[in-house]
Specification:
With 396 residues, the chain is of the alpha/beta class. It folds into two domains: 6-131, Rossmann fold; 136-369, Rossmann fold. 41% of the residues lie in helices and 17% in strands. The strands form two sheets. Strands 8-9-7-10-6-11-12-13 form an eight-stranded mixed β-sheet, with helices on both faces. Helix 1 (14-25) packs across helix 5 (115-125), helix 6 (149-162) crosses helix 16 and helix 10 (234-245) runs parallel beside helix 11. 42% of the residues are buried.
């Protein structure tokens, strides 16, 4: 089994650094992204003030039990949901060990330890395929056709990859998808063909046909061909999502504006759903119907009001949407030719218009979808912070 993990490791001593280097060099982790850092647990806390946590954080803390507890509490403030934390330290005490596990730490290892011991611990953590960490799924859907949902999905995937997240982008607009144009990519195999034979889909096949756009972004564009495709089932789509989420920290899904069981399943199961709407009455009506239908989601969709024209009195406003939908837009974007110009040039918005206010607003919004800009937990007590750590490292 080749592990496909994103791992950040923080060593405080030369011995642990050597063990980490042995882990990173092992062929079993050839498909993993492993970043090695110095400074131990304190450096991890500082790094994640501005960076998102990966699937697994390996940290060394040579201090006593009190220092270990204090710094883990600080890590809890910056750790996003879904991250696992494995700690190595000098404290050889069963009470401390049990307390750390109860607070949500995935494992505690007593130093010094060899590379083989560290490797066995990581393998044990993910020995059960069901225990493998899943990346966050972010789905984009337009309340009506032409709202700009696909453009936002493409830019969000690119923004997250530029920030260092491992991202997979799936274009499921099988007949009219634009990702092959925007990213200038030719699909080795179409998504439609893949979903027509779901029994063939596995991580090896998906890894082979995904197109590497840059260091952190891989994509599967739609063929955008007007031909009849085999029926697509919700089960096939869920299988594809499940595999992709095991291969990247973030899965961005561009959903077509059509109504089918598999589309509804994607809307209901996504960790984050971005609903894009134009500022007109038909879009407001359809957004209202969608929100009512998706009322059982664990988290409400993020509403983006797109293509606003400044000073146009006949269009609906963000206030109109908020009052009718009982959901304020998370972001409003103007009708800006920069989006069209960037697309025609095969560029993302922040590439085309560096420093543009709309581009920067959407970049910040994109980062927030992965948890990068999530507010820190409230409360300063040690017990409260350790509860936050337990929630942060718990795998959904």
């Amino acid at each position: 089994m080749l592990y496909r993990l994103s791992i950040d490791a923080f060593a405080a001593t030369p011995g642990f650094a050597a063990a980490l280097e042995q882990l990173a060099a092992d062929p079993l982790f050839a498909k993993s992204r492993i970043a090695l850092h110095q400074g131990g647990l304190a450096a991890a806390v500082e790094r994640y003030q501005s960076q998102t946590t990966p699937q697994l954080v390996l940290v060394e803390e040579p201090g006593d039990a009190a220092v270990l507890q204090e710094r883990l509490a600080q890590l809890a403030e910056v750790c996003v949901s879904g991250t696992r934390v494995m700690v190595a330290g000098t404290v050889n005490d069963i009470v401390t060990y049990r307390r750390l596990l109860a607070d949500g730490v995935s494992d505690y290892l007593v130093t010094p330890l060899s590379g083989d011991q560290l490797m066995a611990a990581v393998q044990g953590l993910f020995a059960d395929p069901a225990a493998a960490p899943k990346g966050k799924m972010i789905a984009f859907y337009g309340a009506r056709g032409g709202a700009g949902s696909s453009t936002l999905a493409q830019n969000a995937a690119w923004n997250l990859a530029q920030a260092g997240d491992e991202v997979i982008y799936l274009d499921l607009d099988l007949a009219f998808g634009t990702s092959s144009l925007i990213f200038n990519a030719d699909a080795r195999q179409t998504v439609g063909e893949l979903l027509g034979e779901p029994e063939r889909i596995d991580t090896q096949l998906l890894d082979r046909i995904l197109i590497k756009q840059d260091e952190h972004l891989r994509l599967l564009p739609a063929a955008a061909e007007l031909k009849e495709l085999p029926p697509i089932t919700a089960e096939a789509v869920e299988h594809l999502f499940d595999l992709a989420r095991r291969m990247a920290a973030v899965l961005v899904v561009d959903l077509p504006h059509l109504w089918a069981p598999w589309v509804r399943h994607a809307l209901e199961s996504a960790d984050e759903l971005v609903l894009t709407s134009a500022p007109d009455l038909a879009s407001l009506r359809d957004a209202k119907a969608l929100l009512e239908l998706l009322s059982r989601r664990s988290s409400p969709p993020k509403l983006v009001l797109n293509k606003l024209v400044s000073g146009k009195s006949t269009q609906l406003t963000a206030k109109d949407f908020a009052e009718t939908l009982k959901l304020a837009p998370a972001l409003t974007l103007p009708l800006d030719g920069l989006f069209v110009e960037a697309g025609n040039n095969g560029q993302m918005l922040t590439e085309q218009a560096k420093g543009n206010k709309s581009a920067e607003s959407f970049r910040q919004f994109s980062l927030s979808l992965s948890g990068r800009s999530a507010p820190k937990p409230e409360g300063s007590s040690l017990a409260g912070l350790m509860r936050q750590l337990k929630e942060a490292v718990h795998v959904r």
